[in-house]
Design brief:
The complex is a heterodimer of chains A (about 675) and B (about 160).
Chain A lengths: L9 H10 L9 H14 L3 E7 L3 E8 L5 E3 L5 H4 L7 E3 L12 H4 L6 E8 L5 E9 L7 H39 L3 E6 L4 E4 L1 H7 L3 H4 L13 H13 L9 E7 L5 E12 L4 E9 L1 H23 L3 E5 L5 E4 L1 H7 L3 H4 L22 H5 L4 H7 L6 E8 L5 E12 L5 E10 L1 H45 L6 H32 L5 E4 H11 L1 H7 L2 E5 L4 E4 L1 H18 L7 E9 L2 E8 L31 H12 L2 E6 L5 E8 L7
Parallel strand pairs in A: 18-20
Antiparallel strand pairs in A: 1-2, 1-6, 2-3, 4-5, 5-6, 7-8, 7-11, 9-10, 10-11, 12-13, 12-16, 14-15, 15-16, 17-19, 20-21, 21-23, 22-23
Chain B lengths: L16 E4 L3 H13 L6 E4 L2 H10 L11 E4 L8 H9 L9 E5 L4 H9 L4 E4 L4 H18 L8
Parallel strand pairs in B: 1-2, 1-3, 3-4, 4-5
Helix pairs in contact in B: 1-5, 2-3
Classes of the chains: A alpha+beta (about 675), B alpha/beta (about 160).
Chain lengths: ~675, ~160
């Protein structure tokens, strides 16, 4: 047996065979029919459409045989395709040197006759045969040979038709893919003439397909980048494997309107059986560039803030190591960024905190007294934790700071570190100390006034009263009058001192807010004055609904007491005296009015009445020092409230006050 | 001017009233007021805080005839203030039981609270008016001298 030679055009032949895409596909009626016709025409029991692959022959259609393929070594057809233009006719295999010891001859199926017409593709390559065989030697007449050749051409025609249909379908699919990708795609031939444009490319460059097809691709490249672009093309065509180098992350395209658009460009060289062309894949990166620009601006702003901030800004990673240390931190702690970043945790900034807890410290600071590390650990929430802390400089000196610690998190919420802000509050601490001393001085002053000023006053009154009591008979009339004046003056001075103290106490007082009922407060004040009310026969009229307030109850008590006392005092000569108290809530504010039918005052003095020790009436008519309304106005100032009055001389006065419903003071 | 009462040692059977007061006139007026209400107990006077603590240390047994029936204590005193005297007295087993009455000009809440915190029995603000002062003396006598049962027997 002799093995068939490999044809000279084997590579191209196989390429053509594979281009049909027919190997290992199911049987098809058209090929089966042609094989059956061949068997019939040639009066042969076996007929095959055999395709000669690299190492085998595969049967697209077969009649009278079960096998679907055989090795190429023993294939009769491998011999037949060596002469594409001739029918191979073997009348008796047993006398032909090429086939006599072929296993298909010597054993089953025991082929004694073979006739094969090469299947010659349109490009001239023989891809297989249409063949008939028999198990007895025999002859094939001229007409039968011609019929077999004609039928072989029909097989090829069907193979080619099949391929064209499949190619069309693939092309259609290709177009759909090209149109649906988010990238702009431009295809061009080797000379750079555009032959493919997708919808995104139309959008990106502002042209229609009709505008671009047939044009040079450089039309879409800004003039000053054309040389570079041409170089990229030349490199790709010379070296098809250079595709990756042909990807350009940042370049510019030229829009129809003349604008340059930022793009990312990828070049691919495509080789099909028919032609070669270059595919340009273009991504519109305008949005990305805009984000990059924005990011850059934010980074610049961030840098400017961090570098110029007056407070120390220190960040850490998830392990607690310092990742940034700004110039203010360097100045504040006496360390340079290089010696702490990536080396230390913020623990290195912690000052002394040994010994017993400092009971003068803020409660928040005491609670965190276990250490700086626990402070950092505790910053779990998104809210910044803020507290006062003692930090240490490199030289060991202590520095009071206001610390704010915030957890840094990634988009999934995992903690990636901490941001620590520290504000140097040593100046504030000094100021607070000075203020505390001043307040202390003021308190001492008030104390001195109350004690040292009153002691001699008690002496004056005491001894004058002793004279009046025990020695009045021996004194002349004028002397007795003088003694009375001394006593009266001393008592006035006593009241003045009391009122001055009350006023200064109000000024220095830090209110603690409590919850209380306004209506109950008003009734309590009037109950305390029930003796006066009864003595003077005052008609009291209270219309105060149930109102709950939160704030400085004692302050409001002082205000209402003073106003009600004034109303009782200045109306006591009226017949009958009338005092009315009204209250209500409007828009989150509580308003109270106290009205009387007393002597009233001229509205031109309405601003004077709130001054300390300013009086509109003589002491001989109505006792008092002129501190009452000054205290009222000072308390209202602290409550965030206001006061105004309406009056007509001889017809009474009405004072209106307004305080916030919730008088919150600092927590 | 009426001669000021001076420090004396009690000789009568009645326990004395100890006044700790630095102001001459206050002291005189106070004695005057008690005298008007015929208080028979002898008066002992200390003129500053130091003198008061020395007195306390010197008369520290329940049988001491100078252990007072009650103490009238001013808050503002030279050397050691009234609260200091009070704290000193309250550390003594015997003086811890002696009634202390603060008699002062101060109406400050903080003073009142501190005084009670350290175990004062009563807190009275000195009135400027003598008649009011006299009334205070009468009430002190009525309650603390005549009504109240003292912790220690008469000497």
């Amino acid at each position: 047996m002799s093995r068939a030679e490999i044809p000279a055009d084997e590579a191209q032949r196989l390429h053509t065979l594979h281009s049909y895409g027919v190997l290992d596909t199911p049987a098809e009626r058209a090929f089966d029919d042609l094989a059956a016709l061949a068997a019939h025409v040639c009066q042969a029991p076996i007929a095959l459409v055999s395709l000669v692959d690299e190492n085998r022959q595969w049967f697209k259609a077969r009649v009278g045989i079960e096998a679907t393929q055989t090795p190429r070594d023993i294939a009769f057809c491998a011999h037949a395709i060596l002469r594409p233009d001739e029918l191979l006719l073997v009348r008796d295999t047993s006398v032909d040197g090429r086939f006599q010891d072929n296993p298909m001859v010597t054993s089953a199926p025991g082929i004694r006759f073979y006739a094969g017409a090469p299947l010659v593709a349109s490009d001239g390559h023989a891809v297989g045969t249409l063949c008939v065989t028999d198990i007895v030697p025999r002859e094939l007449d001229r007409a039968q040979q011609e019929a077999l050749e004609k039928l072989s051409r029909q097989v090829v025609a069907i193979l080619e038709l099949r391929r064209t249909t499949s190619e069309r379908r693939q092309l259609e699919r290709f177009r759909l893919v090209i149109e649906s990708v988010p990238n702009a795609i431009i295809g061009a031939d080797r000379d750079g003439r555009i032959n493919l444009v997708n919808a995104e490319a139309e959008r990106l460059f502002g042209y229609t397909r009709a505008d671009l097809v047939g044009q040079l691709v450089e039309r879409l490249v800004p003039v000053d980048l054309r040389a570079e672009h041409a170089g990229r093309w030349a490199n790709l065509l010379a070296n098809p494997a250079s595709r990756h180098e042909a990807v350009c992350r940042e370049t510019l395209g030229l829009h129809k309107c003349g604008d340059e658009v930022p793009i990312e460009l990828g070049l691919t060289l495509l080789d099909t059986s028919h032609h070669t062309f270059v595919l340009e894949s273009i991504t519109d990166v305008a949005e990305r560039k805009a984000y990059e620009f924005l990011l850059h601006r934010v980074q610049i702003l961030h840098r400017a803030i961090v570098d110029n901030a007056g407070c120390a800004i220190v960040s850490t990673d998830a392990d607690g190591l310092i990742t940034s240390f700004n110039p203010a931190a360097e100045r504040m702690f006496g360390r340079v960024a290089a010696e702490v970043v990536g080396v230390h945790t913020p623990q290195i900034l912690q000052g002394d905190e040994g010994g017993a807890p400092d009971m003068d410290a803020e409660p928040s600071q005491r609670a965190l007294g276990r250490g700086f590390a626990s402070l950092l650990d505790q910053c779990r929430g998104d809210d910044a934790r803020e507290c006062e802390w003692i930090c240490a400089r490199k030289d060991g000196s202590q520095l009071p700071v206001l610390l704010s610690v915030t957890a840094l998190r990634d988009t999934d919420g995992h903690k990636t570190g901490c941001l620590v802000l520290a504000l140097d509050i040593s100046q504030r601490k000094r100021d607070e100390e000075i203020l505390r001393e001043k307040n202390e001085e003021l308190k001492t002053f008030a104390y001195t006034v109350s004690h040292d000023l009153k002691a001699p006053l008690r002496g004056i009154t005491g001894y004058a009263q002793e004279v009046q009591r025990s020695h009045a008979e021996s004194l002349p009339e004028r002397a007795r009058f003088c003694i009375g004046q001394v006593i009266s003056a001393a008592k006035n001075l006593d009241r003045l001192i009391d009122d001055l103290l009350a006023y200064s106490r109000i000024v220095a007082h830090v209110p603690q807010p409590v919850r209380f009922r306004l209506d109950e407060l008003v009734h309590r004040i009037l109950d305390d004055r029930s003796l006066t009310v009864a003595d003077q026969g005052v008609e009291i009229d209270i219309e105060v609904p149930r109102i709950e307030l939160r704030g400085w109850e004692h302050g409001l008590h002082q205000v209402l007491s003073n106003l009600i006392d004034n109303a009782l005092k200045y109306s006591r000569q009226s017949r009958p005296p009338r005092v009315a108290v009204r209250a209500g809530l409007t828009n989150g504010a509580c308003s109270v009015s106290v009205a009387d039918n007393g002597i009233g005052f001229d509205m031109k003095y309405q601003d004077r009445i709130y001054g300390l020790f300013n009086r509109l009436v003589r002491a001989s008519e109505f006792e008092g020092t002129g501190a009452g309304l000054a205290i009222v106005s000072k308390v209202l100032e602290k409550l965030g409230g206001s006061i105004r009055a309406e009056s007509t001389p001889g017809q009474g006065a009405t004072f209106f006050i307004e305080v916030p419903e919730f008088i919150e003071s600092s927590p | 001017m009426t001669p000021l009462a001076t420090r004396a040692v009690a000789t009568e059977r009645l326990r004395p009233i100890l006044m700790v007061e630095d102001n001459d006139m206050d002291l005189d007026l106070c004695m005057q007021a008690f005298a008007e209400h015929a208080v028979a107990n002898p008066f002992l006077v200390c003129r500053d805080g130091q003198e008061a603590t020395d007195f306390i240390d010197a008369h520290a047994t329940s049988t001491d005839p100078n252990l007072p029936l009650l103490v009238l204590l001013d808050l503002r005193l030279p050397k050691l203030d009234g609260i200091g005297v009070l704290r000193h007295a309250r550390k003594h087993a015997v003086w811890n039981q002696v009634p202390f009455i603060i008699l002062t000009t101060s109406r400050e809440n903080s003073d009142i609270q501190t005084a009670y915190q350290f175990g004062v029995n009563s807190y009275i603000v000195k009135p400027v008016d003598f008649f009011a002062f006299s009334e205070v003396a009468r009430r002190v006598q009525l309650y603390w001298v005549l009504t109240n049962q003292a912790p220690f027997a008469q000497p």
